Amino acid sequence: MIENMSATPMASRFHIGIFGRRNAGKSSLINALTGQEIALTSDVPGTTTDPVYKAMELLPIGPVVLIDTGGLDDVGELGRKRVEKSYEVLRRCHFAVVVVDSGSGWTPFERDFIEELRFRGIPTLCVLNKADLVDAGRRQELLKEGPAGVPAVFAAALSGEGIVEVKARIIAGAAEREPEPPLIGDLVSPGEMVLLVTPIDKAAPKGRLILPQQQTIRDILDRGAMTVVTRDDELRRALELLAAPPALVITDSQVFRSVDVETPLSIPLTSFSILFARQKGDLAELLRGVRRIERLQPGETVLIAEGCTHHRQDDDIGTVKIPRWIRQITGETIRFEWTSGACFPRDLSRYAVIVHCGGCMLNRREMQYRIARAREEEVAITNYGLLIAYVMGILERAVAPFPEALRVWKEAVAGGRA
After folding, report:
1. Using CA atoms, how far apart are residues 68 and 28, in angstroms rounded to an integer?
2. What is the DSSP letter of 208?
3. pLDDT band at 100 (very low <50, low <70, confident <90, very high)
4. Within 10 Å of residue 335's Cβ, how many Cβ atoms?
5. Most buried one in 73, 82, 145, 270, CB count within 10 A?
6. Among positive and negative, which fits the CA dihedral 99, 103, 109, 112?
7. Do residues 43 and 137 both lie within one domain?
8. Using 50, 70 and 90 to split pLDDT, how confident is the model at 41?
9. Is residue 67 very low, low, confident or very high in pLDDT (cuts 50, 70, 90)?
10. What is the rounded CA–CA span in Å between residue 319 and residue 298?
11. What is the rounded CA–CA span in Å between residue 72 and residue 87?
12. Are residues 307 and 264 part of one domain?
């Protein structure tokens, strides 16, 4: 999916998943919440197949994305796959709305799903939809029969009844969410200068900067700091023109080697990918994972995972450069597999190492899920930027701006452990 580059990126939006049985009125609810005919509605069960995403503004939350999912009670082999897709949406949800058909009431599908939401710690609201078709007595019964501790509201998506309250409950749930760690705001002070190194080559999108560069610039400006952006082949000249050294240099990881040579050791240096590894993932875990690369054995498999899909260039980083760098360290008999976008294997046991992109197109919940899955199966996981810095022999310098991460790395090196 190509995003409007002037809009808030999907990964930075508050994700609201709409779940329920087939024909419970999920699509009608999302249409009512957005005030648009976003999702196809029909009396035929199973109209919604793959999840449908709709970005919008929901004040005072701000940018959100509503996700309409297939029915939890779908049947058959194809239906089972649709249900799996609905469960996959949970990996990135900040808030869940479970839609119940007031006419048929609660079933094990909703109850089991709500228990899964409790287990995952996802704030939940139950919407008893089609409430205009039941009387007051039945409404009271439905409230009593519902799962304890989960708020429930009545609504009739087609007539608009209860939609204001549904929005209010979502807004209240969003206010309680844990704030995301900063991208760069804690590394610079107001008034300081940050120098960004952005190569312009055949992989660079024509007419714009890539998403990590855009988001970093915005975070610097939000901090009240300033930024200078230069190409890698103009870095030396940019440093000469600055009246004072920058507080930090941030580079595209693929030109780490040349930027390291041109940047004085007195100036802190890191990469966009490492910044995102810290914000969205677990920098300490990803640092430990990079040391597993040097212990790869012939025939072992490395999974290279990317959070987006894009057209591959001849010297693509994920399919060409990273395998080449790993083979330089370990030899030619390492196997590689690739995933992209929302796809991420359920079974990770066949992999020795996972090398993940920075995750700029994934939200923090999704990235945390992937790291947690690797940890559960005792599979080492690392990050593009960390791997490249390791291959270039400058990993310690690249993580020096993060004292806790630097300590973890030094301990791992000293202990000889992954």
Report:
1. 10
2. S
3. very high
4. 15
5. 270
6. positive
7. yes
8. very low
9. very high
10. 19
11. 9
12. no
Indicate the pLDDT class of residue 201, thresholds 50, 70 and 90. low
pLDDT at 6: 54
Residues 339 and 391 in one domain: yes
In a domain, residue 64? The reply is: yes
Confidence bin at 1 (pLDDT 50/70/90) = very low
Torsion from C-alpha of 291, 292, 293, 295, nearest 10 degrees: 110
pTM of the model: 0.81
Q: How far apart are CA 70 and CA 57, in angstroms?
A: 23
Residues 136 and 23 in one domain: yes
The full DSSP string for 57-90 is: EETTTEEEEEEE---TT--HHHHHHHHHHHHHHG
Closest to 337 in 3D by CA, of 321, 353, 325, 313 = 353
Residue 96 Cα to chain centre, angstroms: 17
Could you give the C-alpha distances from 367 to 11, 81, 214, 305, 394, in angstroms and in order? 10, 22, 20, 11, 25
C-alpha to C-alpha distance for 382 and 360, rounded to whole angstroms? 15
Give the pLDDT of residue 38.
52
| Confidence category of residue 78, pLDDT binned at 50, 70, 90 | confident
State the CATH number of the domain containing residue 375.
3.40.50.11410
Same domain, 336 and 369: yes
Q: Which residues contact 326 (CB under 8 A, 6 or more apart)?
A: 293, 296, 302, 334, 355, 387
Q: How many domains, in total, are found in the chain?
A: 3
Residue 401 domain boundaries: 282-415
**Per DSSP, which regions of 213-332 are E strands?**
226-230, 248-251, 269-271, 301-305
Q: Is the pLDDT of residue 152 over 90?
A: yes
Structure tokens belonging to residue 359:
């995750």
Report the pLDDT averaged over residues 157-164. Answer: 88
Looking up tokens 């969410």, which residue turns up? Answer: 177
Question: Coil, strand, or helix at residue 302?
Answer: strand
Q: Are 126 and 90 in contact (CB under 8 A)?
A: no
Report the alpha-carbon distance of residue 346 to residue 378 in Å, rounded.
Answer: 14
- Residue 4: inside a domain: no
How do strand 62-68 and strand 52-58 relate by DSSP bridges?
A: antiparallel
